[in-house]
DNA sequence: TATTGTTATACTCTATAACTATA
DNA sequence: TATAGTTATAGAGTATAACAATA
């Protein structure tokens, strides 16, 4: 016997039947993520923006801590940070007590760029959201933190 | 004056303040999408599974139609399809009336692989979902089709 | 001439393994 | 010896531009 998610691959069907939530959610999230990536229009990629956003939200972080927050392996973060430093959006500074660690700081230029890029990146989604009903927007407003919690796990 | 989404970068804050929904949603969706990609454990990638899933849902499609559904450019889909054909999960067949077009069919082997992979991919998310409250799950169940609708735009 | 699909090429993201420097 | 970060290397996804075949 197949699993429930083999019988309900699309979100509308999952909503009707009450089965396959995991599958429907995974598909929807992946599609929307890809769609959002298409809408960015700048020098910074979605991955770089995400790292900058984390630095803005949390303040300075070590390379390892940033990698953990972004859920990537350290070498991947090294590469991303190299791009960000080269673009002048992030500064590498020595750790005060541990010579092995590096502390990453968002530069003023980085903060400004982040704000501008985020506006651009969100423009498409914000426009789409305005086309929804108030109830649907409220639904998404309450769902967003739950999605974050799922990702945090 | 900055946009609302510059003041609320994280989902919980957006939920509290009622601002920055687009930004919070974009961040949450991107994080969860990346997290889900980490959880796959198979020969097929998330992109390949998504293409197979679309073929299963819609039946045979031309290369161009599949690219449109997956929201990628035709050359990207060519590459994905090459991998799928090489893996024996998809067959290329000639279009009955138009010699330029190619019709892509999900093979039986592809359907079986898809089912198995989807189970594996969803296992992590399903487990995480069980840790939520029934209200949160219901929230996501209703949010999933809205996310799909946003992506479809 | 327009359309469909592919090939050529390049760039980004990501990972694992190996290496360096420091604790 | 263990840890933090980087470098080296490789594989996948995506895109644009150029090309082939067909309509």
Descriptive overview:
- The structure is a homodimer of 153-residue chains.
- The radius of gyration of chain A is 19 Å and the shape is globular.
- The longest helix of chain A is centred in the C-terminal third of the chain and has 23 residues.
- Helices cover 67% and strands 8% of the residues of chain A.
- A 3-stranded antiparallel sheet of chain A has the order 1-3-2.
- Chain A is mainly α and 153 residues long.
- The N terminus of chain A is likely disordered.
- In chain A, a hairpin with a 7-residue loop joins strand 2 and strand 3.
- In chain A, helix 3 packs across helix 5, helix 3 packs across helix 6 and helix 4 crosses helix 5.
- Chain A has 7 helices and 3 strands.
- The interface between A and B is large, with 63 and 63 residues.
- The structure holds a DNA duplex (23 and 23 nucleotides).
Quick overview:
2 copies of one chain form a homodimer. Chain A is mostly helical.
Written as H for each helix and E for each strand, in order along the chain, the element string of chain A is: HHHEHHEEHH
Beta-strand content estimate of chain A: 5-15%
Radius of gyration of chain A, in Å, reads: 19 Å
The biggest beta sheet of chain A is recorded as: 3 strands, antiparallel
Largest interface: A-B, 63 and 63 residues
Q: Helical content of chain A, roughly?
A: 55-70%
Output the strand order for the largest sheet of chain A.
1-3-2
E-strand count of chain A: 3
Structural class designation of chain A? mainly alpha
Number of helices of chain A: 7
**What characteristic shape of chain A results from the CA principal axes?**
globular
Q: Give the terminus-to-terminus CA distance of chain A.
A: 29 Å
Mean pLDDT of chain A: 83
